[in-house]
What does this fold into?
Amino acid sequence: MNKTPASVWRNPIHFLAFGLGSGAAPRAPGTFGTVAGLLIYVLLPSMSVPAYLLFLALTFAFGVWLCGRTAADIGVHDHGGIVWDEFVGLWLTLFMAPPGLVWLALGFLLFRVFDVLKPWPIAWCDKYVEGGLGIMIDDVLAGLMALACLQLIAALIL
It folds into this structure.
């Protein structure tokens, strides 16, 4: 377990990368970060599909820089507390999700399963892609897989 650097509470870049502090949880920081991402998602204004896709692209690009910068500053490539990638992965999972708490919970669960189990190619990217892109890409892939599953379930049920 990596200890939370003190800079998280002083440096706004590190604070954002650590998911507004949610990644400082002593256990399961990725899960706590995903919960924080879910709370932010619920507070987001309603967006058109193009606006939401732009939001995802911008938060991803910002995350590559943010996570890479924080990792370099603290000297740990993918510190467990860096959870901005969980935010973006979950927001991707919930793209065009049906309304309702059940769908939010299912999206959360699916994302966590893919993020933790890391099936191919997620594990490969996690191991071989470096820098901010490496921190972000495995969660984006987990988000894409969870999105596909969520949409398939929705199509079969609704």
User: Anything to note?
Assistant: The chain has seven helices and no strands. Helices lie at 12-17, 29-43, 49-74, 84-93, 101-117, 122-128, 131-157.
